[in-house]
Automatic annotation (TrEMBL):
Transmembrane segments: none annotated. The keyword Nucleotide-binding does not apply. It catalyses: ATP + protein L-histidine = ADP + protein N-phospho-L-histidine. This is histidine kinase. It is an enzyme of class 2 (transferase). Its EC number is 2.7.13.3. Residues 220-231 have a biased composition (Low complexity). It comes from Cupriavidus taiwanensis. GO terms for cellular component: plasma membrane. InterPro entries: HisK_dim/P_sf, TCS_sensor_his_kinase. Residues 232-247 have a biased composition (Basic residues). It comes from the Bacteria. GO terms for molecular function: phosphorelay sensor kinase activity. The keyword Phosphoprotein applies.
Amino acid sequence: MPATALRRLSAAGGIAEVRSGPNRQSLLVVSRQLVLASADTPVEISVALDRTELRAARCSFNQTLAWLLTTLGLGLRFAMAAQVRFGLAPLARLRHALGTMQARREARLGGAWPAEVEPLVSEINALLARNAPALERSRRQAADLAHAIKTPLAVLANEAAALPGTAAQAVSGQVEAMRRQVDRHLARARAAGEAALISARGRPWRRAYRAPGPVQTPFRRPGTAGRSAARPGRRRRRVCAPRNSGR
């Protein structure tokens, strides 16, 4: 036993010490001398306790305390995990909604949201609303530019046919490459416009994007170099009428 405990027992009105018992066990003995009225000599009274019981009680207390602390720690851990899972569930839902909005090309985030996430959703919708006109204006300008370039490209293609040898092939190849780029940008602008229209109607599941077919160079007769090329995304069939042999 620590010396401080022995001093406390001694201060309580007795002498505390550790002694060996009859079976060589460790005993905690507290002795006190009393003077009786009928006796001239003092009487010493000693109380002993086996220290093995104290050790067993202390060990049992330590085990109980360890189990309690372990249970408390596990409970706190599960509580924190549940709080993170259910507390941050609106953010996971918001991330899923953003992915769905991007896939469907919708204009804003809809649905009911908790009060903690509602300001963030409002800011996202406001940002989308501010950027939508600029994107639409840029898309329209790109489409107008592509339409404006198609007529000069058709003129260049007709003029390239009159060039001699390899020069005609080189110019025609470059004109065809430029025409493919113009057709691609026009197809993207048209697809974006169709997606915006379908999203405004609120029927995103009925979208059906149709890739534009290959653009064929229209048949041109001599002297028609100023006519515009075929509209992108449409196929033209060239029908040749049978010639009348009698004329």
